[in-house]
Amino acid sequence: xxxxxxxxxxxxxxxxxxxxxxxxxxxLTHALHYASSVFEGERCYDGKIFRGRDHSARLLKSGxxxxxxxxxxxxxxxxxxxxxxxxxxxxxxxxxxxxxRGAGEDMGVASKRNPVRMAIAAWEWGSYYGDAKMKGxxxxxxxxxxxxxxxxxxxxKAAGLYMICTMSKHAAEAKGCSDAMMFDxxxxxAEATGANMFFxxxxxxxxxxxxxxxxxxxxxxxxxxxxxxxxKVHERHIMPEELEGFQQCWLTGTxxxxxxxxxxxxxxxxxxxMARDVAESYEKLVRA
Length: 288
Ligand code: PMP
Description:
Blueprint lengths: L9 E4 L2 E4 L10 H5 L2 E9 L2 E2 L2 H14 L8 H14 L5 E9 L14 E8 L8 H4 L1 E10 L16 H12 L4 E6 L4 E4 L3 E6 L2 E5 L8 H12 L4 E4 L11 E6 L3 E8 L2 E2 L4 H14 L2
Parallel strand pairs: 7-8, 7-14, 11-12
Antiparallel strand pairs: 1-2, 1-6, 3-4, 3-5, 5-6, 8-9, 10-11, 10-13, 13-14, 14-15
Helix pairs in contact: 2-3
């Protein structure tokens, strides 16, 4: 497969479409050195971006949280995404919007004088966990912990927060796992490296309270769906020793959608009726 830098098509950059291979930045880009970057991952289903405006609003919020004003409105970002999808004729695609501090007069940690830039690209991205999707993904347990909200703005989808995710996912893949489950700084069950987590015990659902990690849009959608189905959802702190007692588990995320989990470390879960039903209901909802 061609490198992501070497593809046909167009990327929206700072207000206009650029040929894909020309959408480049300078090596002295602030974001490359200091992780001054926020992004969104979205999916377009049959020509419609699922919760597109919510993603754009979260992008602006993420910028605010890292003290970076993104110079576009939600409406302008929506129009830019539409332009990208139209230019390459996408009906079903993954969309990546990213905003960052560019190269400019500042090269130190402070970056008030550098321009804030933005780009949007779309491409085809199938099942995030590949074949594992409906068989139940196998997860490692990460040695890295989600940091305290006093250490980093945990509700920002900010590049810097992904450093420990990349390290955790590399370690997981080296052991033959699809992803890693991370604990938080207090030792509670938190999330996977790019998705939120749900557990089932005796017909009721338990999901970690997102008080130090991203409260994903898919997570919120799935909680709403479960409540509509009259299923009890407990959002609470979950201790590692509780993993033993859970019967089912699944991940939620824009890329992951709803992916059942079969194993986390030494704990096993069945790909049960509820996990399958939630995955199917989500698939229907995003195309409704
Ligand atoms: N946690 C992390 C670390 C993520 O990267 C993602 C994906 N954006 C999520 C959770 C799920 O968020 P969403 O459902 O909004 O895609």
